[in-house]
Write a structure and sequence with these properties.
alpha+beta, Jelly Rolls, 22% helix, binds 2-oxoglutaric acid
């Protein structure tokens, strides 16, 4: 087993340095900013505005971002963690701007948002800009993934956050082009951004093509980034856009 995989199995996360070159991440940042310009930005005069701008599925906006999810170095890393069959559930763009308001990313596990039968779901956080403690980088409890499925472990569960406060977690600082991979059982979260510099990330949620979502009707791009999806069928391949009420 590779050192990278051993570290991931032991700690529940892995910071892969320089997966995207400076030139690649600079082009991706331009496209990231273009996506943000296409979004409705919350009113930053509102004291409750938490500083986060987000959208799902950057690959539905930008061909360059689709190519980023298919990037060889990126998928070679993912393959070490979940094997050669790699399915995209969804991606999320988060830009975190300076705020004095509370963070929406209290400590939590991801599994209950998108459970799979074999628990292969991981996240790859692509760092488009610098992430430091002051900027509100990701914080994790190393090794906490070994506890498996903990109940009431969502970011909206205050007791979970009290049990696992930010102070007990370690900050994962990163540079543009790095990718932080983490298991969907790891306890993680991030504080608000207290700096003038926005923090920009795109997180890809991916699972093995040998695994499947517990709820096959829950939203999933089901986009095969590498290899094969053994569970795709006529029903799951059909997609419907839900009409607003
Ligand atoms: O963007 C962050 O800092 C945290 C995101 C997160 O915790 C999540 O998406 O599960």
């Amino acid at each position: 087993m590779s050192k990278i995989r051993t570290f991931f199995d032991e700690n529940g996360y892995y910071l892969a340095k320089g997966i995207f070159s400076t030139a690649e991440i600079s082009s991706l940042e331009n496209e990231f900013d273009r996506i943000v310009r296409q979004l409705e930005i919350p009113d930053d005069g509102d004291p409750n505005y938490n500083g986060v701008i987000s959208t799902r599925n950057v690959q539905q906006y930008s061909g360059l971002w689709l190519a980023a999810l298919l990037h060889k170095g990126f998928l070679d890393s993912v393959e070490q963690f979940i094997g050669p069959d790699i399915v995209l559930n969804h991606s999320t763009l988060f830009e975190k701007r300076k705020t004095t308001a509370d963070t929406p990313f209290k400590m939590h596990q991801d599994w209950s948002y998108l459970p799979t039968q074999k628990n292969t779901m991981i996240a790859g956080m692509i760092h488009v800009s610098e992430a430091t403690e002051e900027i509100g980088c990701l914080r994790v409890y190393p090794g906490s993934h070994k506890q498996g499925r903990l109940e009431r472990s969502k970011a909206v569960d205050p007791e979970f956050h009290e049990q696992f406060p930010f102070e007990g977690a370690i900050p994962i600082e990163a540079e543009p082009g790095d990718v932080t991979f983490f298991d969907y059982f790891i306890i993680h979260g991030s504080m608000s951004n207290h700096s003038e510099q926005p923090r920009k990330v795109v997180i890809a949620r991916m699972f093995s093509g040998k695994d499947r979502k517990e709820d096959i009707y829950q939203f999933s791009e089901n986009l095969v980034l590498r290899g094969w999806n053994s569970h795709t069928n006529e029903a799951t391949a059909r997609k419907a856009v839900v009409k607003p009420q």
